[in-house]
Design a protein that fits this description.
Order of helices and strands: EEHEEEHHEEHEEHEHEHHEHHHEHEE
Shape: elongated
Strand content: 15-25%
Number of helices: 12
Number of strands: 15
Structural class: alpha+beta
Distance between the termini: 58 Å
Strand order of the largest sheet: 2-1-5-3-4
Radius of gyration: 25 Å
Amino acid sequence: MKIFLNNEPFETKEAKTVLEAAREAGVFIPTLCAYPGLSHTPGTCGICLAEISYPDGPSGIRTSCRAPLQEGMRISTKTKEVRDAQRAQLELLFADHDFTCQTCSRYGDCELLDLSARVGLNTAKYTRKYYPGRPADTSDISIHLDAGKCIRCERCVEVCTTVQGLSSLMLHGKGGKAAIGLTEGGLWLDSNRCVRCGQCTVVCPTGALTENDQTEQVVDWLEDPNVVTVFQFAPAVRATLGEAAGFPAGTNVEKKIIAALKKVGADYVLDTNFTADVTIMEEGTELLERISDKNSTLPLFTSCCPAWVNYVEQHKPELIPHLSTTRSPQGIMGSLAKTYLPAKKGVNKEQLRTISIMPCTAKKDEATRKALSKDGVPDTD
């Protein structure tokens, strides 16, 4: 199919909408709700505007995510009328948005603010003028919701429903009070549908959905002379932190992580790679034992991922007997740090605080499990 993008001819075979064609051609059209990687074009943000002219139909400014392609159509993305319309739409989003940016967890990394700069929005006369006040929920150990920051893009709904298959989130309310919330309502802490995987926090463009940041608690422990801090970090972290810091994707920054932790005052730094190997050995042994026992339950599923364990317990309880009884690598390292390490190093275990640097929000939830504590003291703090 041949179309014209900003007066330049372009041929596409895969694209079905104007936005898809523009992305394929490398032409920027601003959007907040149509997220790459998700089949998600609700048109709710209304920012992906372009001037579209069909050969046998009307022309005008439309949302490009919902505009189907047609042979010979002409698309303009940079005219003054288009840019004015994009800025006007952003102004409307600002009208009922809670602009407490200084204390927002996404401060400095907010797609809404980045986009406003990209489209040249220098003034926004409606900012917070119609903000009705929407509640925050910080009850859960893993995920926090600040509905005041929600722009109703529904990316989180899409990833939770179509990728994770949980449908834990939906849009509640009407008008300015509309915002994302749990499908069953109530506090996040009480949800038996969400598995705390954190995928919603990954796709959220603002500070509406975030992980529970426990950095300040860690800093308090580091500064307390009566506390002995024991850090562990997962295998994935040594690559993802490097990428976040600007290193080429896949760069191993293991030594840099250790050096940085020591620099800020960590007493011990342990490698979760070791207990990942322990997990494999234990699960392998358990599998061999089950295979040799005709009365055992098979197949055997790993218990390494806490979000997966939550999913089985909450959504597929009939599969619980199939889960391995082995702890996760974090759980094993936490237990070793609270038992074996004090015995070997002569440290008072009452002073120990074990801290995990992990790539998954469900690890926070896992650390609170009663089975992963002794005498009321968690193995992972």
